[in-house]
Amino acid sequence: MTQDRRHDIDALRALAFGVLILYHVGMFYVPWDWHLKSDYSASWLEPVMLFSNQWRMPLIFLISGLAVHFLLPKMTGAGFAWSRIKRLGLPLLFGMAVIVPPQAYLESVSNGGFEGSYGAFLLRYLQLQPWPESEFSGADIGITWNHLWYLPYLLFYTLLLIPAAGLLDRLSQRCARLHGLWLVLVPLLPLMLIGEFVFPRFPYISHSLSDDVYAHAMYGSFFVYGYLIGRSPLLWRTLARGRWVWSGLGAVSFASFLVGIEVLDAAQPAESMAQMFLIYLNRWVWILVVLAWSHQLLNRPMRWLGWANESVYPWYILHQSFTVVIGYHAAKYALGPVIEPLVVLGGTVAGSWALTEAIRRVGWARPLFGLKARRRPQRRTRDALHPGPNEQAIQSGLPD
Fold first, then answer.
1. Nearest one of 63, 76, 355 to 230, comparing CA atoms
2. Do 260 and 195 touch, CB atoms closer than 8 A?
């Protein structure tokens, strides 16, 4: 295995999206607002969900920025931009037209809005005309990308990064020398500035792209962080060596975070600053924990990686529609607070797995789910048997 082969990046990407899928199933039961809710509210899920939602999406954007660092040098800027537009844009449009509408329909039905059949709803939905705002998320503009919001955000950040890649490459060389406490404090400073100056003016995350200033500042920063940590073996060795330290600091930071959001008064400037520090410290430290342990444990060939690399993108696109549809119908049968979640989770996993396996085998469907077209079998050459640095990630068909 060459030093540049980063199996841990591929594995971590798949595992991060696995956490995302579990989180969305949990949203059906945790007592927070969501598209649809089960009658079996589980308040015990709140700390579990709160733990992961602090770093779940920042980690995914960081991984995406990290993957861009590996992919961009292999193409021209224009070529890379066009490849991202195709790989992210086509699945987004297809998803909004075909995959997401069942979620919007059932949300509208549950809200007492639309009363007709799904076919009638779809005909109305595809007219792209505004609905009453309470019908479903995004109804005011007539169409929704729902859980697929990550795709336009990732495309937006990628297109912005391409012209700045040279400057960021030079900056990444300086980041490679970060160690110890500086590895915590230096990335934490921009996050604190965002919390101090951006969040008070734009405190809501809308997932609508055009007016989501705080989300762009936060997720865009983690995307850039991923690009900056890039290929430096020194930085990754430093991360892995400190894994136990990061884990201990993570436990302390999460406990402090839980206390801080309950005890500190955000209306008081000093306490608000302390609360903000605890929030962003917890967020960044747990990303360090995940990166350190994944590099230590997962940076090796594993049989499941090839399948996971090609499957994770369709799973991401499909999973929430399965969760919503299965959860909506399972709720009719009063299965109880144990059986129903198992049915929803099992159905989400089984449905995503089965449909993804079909998609992988149908040539015309692959691009609709972000997968590369199948290549004709080629003569086995030395290059094919020994792919170049991180070739798995390049061939994986993922939204890098």
1. 63
2. no
